[in-house]
Automatic annotation (TrEMBL):
<protein>
    <recommendedName>
        <fullName>DHHA2 domain-containing protein</fullName>
    </recommendedName>
</protein>
<dbReference type="InterPro" id="IPR004097">
    <property type="entry name" value="DHHA2"/>
</dbReference>
<feature type="domain" description="DHHA2">
    <location>
        <begin position="180"/>
        <end position="347"/>
    </location>
</feature>
<dbReference type="Pfam" id="PF02833">
    <property type="entry name" value="DHHA2"/>
</dbReference>
<comment type="similarity">
    <text>Belongs to the PPase class C family. Prune subfamily.</text>
</comment>
<dbReference type="InterPro" id="IPR038763">
    <property type="entry name" value="DHH_sf"/>
</dbReference>
<dbReference type="GO" id="GO:0005737">
    <property type="term" value="C:cytoplasm"/>
</dbReference>
<dbReference type="GO" id="GO:0046872">
    <property type="term" value="F:metal ion binding"/>
</dbReference>
<feature type="compositionally biased region" description="Basic and acidic residues">
    <location>
        <begin position="380"/>
        <end position="398"/>
    </location>
</feature>
<dbReference type="Pfam" id="PF01368">
    <property type="entry name" value="DHH"/>
</dbReference>
<feature type="region of interest" description="Disordered">
    <location>
        <begin position="353"/>
        <end position="427"/>
    </location>
</feature>
<keyword id="KW-0378">Hydrolase</keyword>
<dbReference type="GO" id="GO:0004309">
    <property type="term" value="F:exopolyphosphatase activity"/>
</dbReference>
<dbReference type="InterPro" id="IPR001667">
    <property type="entry name" value="DDH_dom"/>
</dbReference>
<keyword id="KW-0479">Metal-binding</keyword>
<keyword id="KW-0464">Manganese</keyword>
<dbReference type="InterPro" id="IPR038222">
    <property type="entry name" value="DHHA2_dom_sf"/>
</dbReference>
Length: 455
């Protein structure tokens, strides 16, 4: 949910909501709560609500809602109707579009959105900034800016200034290293979480007319993530249930001397369904919808590999999951915040190029199909020596290969009784044609070679 706090404005019925972003990470949560506390002077417990506990659409329709967006400035598509209620934005990422007065805009490219809230409190010199609030602000900025490490490329002079000011004003604050290490351990502690919970823990989504792409931050090495038991089934279920056409996971981990590493995994639900042997039924909109899913997968990978602003410095990694393409990211300073515009621009171009292919990206999965067959270990098996089985390239089944050897009937006059077409056209359904073409396309797209025929 979203972090949100509210305070009354003008009349008892009017409500001003301070709303954090969908990911609800520490930066979003703390900056939202502290700004709401500053604006309202106090926050009664009943006014501290989550996004799904308040009817924002109903309040807006009644003319009673005003919104401050914190740590984001673009409303999710499901909240787009609330656009007219936005009166203020506080964010630390580049503006995607310009908001006009009377909307107040505070957008600065600092390491932490909490820095912008801290600056406001310091400038106002209000009693709101007590030792408890200072500890919240201090820890959040340190975590977001990776303990002010230069090599992480996150901290700016304004972040550093806020940290120094808080330290000088509140001597009771714990040492930087102690605060950062404690928060970092908590942030990277994913023990007990399912794959679905890990993906949802820090999730952003981009929506276009033709596709919805999920971008999750995963706090472990990509190798460990890809070898989670039942991973492919979990990824397929996660994307299908939430309607994602593509999933990008940015794995963040730390090596020796606390050096950060970033790795990327791009996953296609369509590739997963094909690998599992599931039947993808054509929709009434577009028989070849699943192939758009394959094409989206490869085009997104190409866009990420070819990006120059910024360059991600990607190099391919081996992966035990055939439906996942994995990368080592050379540019560790390119956070997810910098990845989002690359994918957003791609979706914009993709939407324009696929306008004639129909609106649907997600294929309809037939309910009569048996469950997808997945390796119970999820990410390939290992032999005792630790070597992984190489993923098998998809190929046509034996039955399909046999079918290719059958000769077509000898052409005959259709008026002759013995003609094979005398009883009408063969009973070939669209589904059968689709399934056959599906197998051929899978082989060509994923294996990079034409189907082999038995001779």
């Amino acid at each position: 949910g979203h972090g949100g706090g509210g305070g009354c404005r003008a009349t008892p019925e009017a409500i001003h909501v301070v709303m954090g972003n969908e990911a609800c990470d520490l930066d979003s949560t703390v900056s939202t709560l502290v700004l709401a506390y500053f604006l309202a002077k106090r926050i009664p417990e009943k006014d501290l609500v989550f996004r799904d506990e308040i009817d924002l659409a109903g309040l807006h329709k009644a003319g009673l809602l005003t919104l401050t967006l914190v740590d984001h400035h673009v409303l999710p598509s499901k909240d787009s109707a609330l656009e007219a209620a936005v009166v203020e934005v506080v964010d630390h990422r580049p503006l995607e579009w310009e908001r006009r007065p009377p909307c107040k805009v505070t957008v600065e490219l600092v390491g932490s959105c909490t820095t912008l809230v801290t600056e406001r409190l310091l400038q106002a010199r209000v009693p709101t900034l007590d030792s408890q609030i200072a500890a919240l602000l201090y820890g959040t900025i340190l975590l977001d800016c990776v303990n002010m490490a230069v090599e992480a490329g996150k901290a700016t002079p304004r972040d550093a200034c806020c940290i120094s000011r808080l330290e000088s004003m509140f001597s009771e604050l714990q040492p930087r290293n102690r605060v950062f290490d404690a928060l970092q351990r908590a942030k990277f502690d994913v023990s007990g979480l399912t794959t679905e919970q890990m993906l949802r823990k820090d999730l952003k989504s981009l929506v276009s007319k033709t596709a919805t792409v999920a971008i999750s931050a995963v706090y472990m090495s990509l190798q460990d993530f890809l070898h989670r038991p039942g991973l492919e089934q979990d990824l397929a279920t996660f994307c299908h249930q939430k309607g994602f056409g593509l999933l990008i996971a940015m794995a963040i981990s730390f090596g020796d001397h606390k050096k950060p590493f970033r790795q990327l995994a791009v996953y296609s639900p369509q590739a997963a369904f094909q690998e599992a042997g599931a039947y993808v039924s054509p929709t009434s909109q577009d028989l070849l919808n699943p192939f758009l899913g394959f094409w989206l997968f490869f085009q997104v990978c190409q866009a990420l590999e070819g990006s120059t602003n910024p360059s991600l410095g990607l190099s391919r990694l081996e992966t035990p999951c055939p439906a996942v393409r994995a990368y080592q990211q050379g540019n560790i300073g390119a956070s997810r915040k910098k990845l989002l515009p690359i994918v957003r621009e791609f979706l914009h171009q993709w939407g324009r190029s696929t306008q004639t292919t129909g609106p649907g990206m997600q294929p309809e999965i037939s309910s009569c199909v048996p469950p997808a067959r997945m390796d119970p270990q999820g990410a390939g098996r290992r032999d005792p020596s630790g070597a992984k089985d190489a993923p098998k390239a998809p190929r046509l089944s034996e039955e399909a290969a046999e079918e290719d050897t059958l000769m077509p009937p000898t052409p005959m006059n259709s008026l002759v009784d013995e003609c094979p077409l005398h009883q009408g056209l063969p009973g070939v359904s669209p589904e059968a044609i689709f399934e056959r073409v599906n197998r051929i396309a899978t082989d060509r797209l994923l294996d990079g070679r034409s189907p082999e025929k038995k001779k």
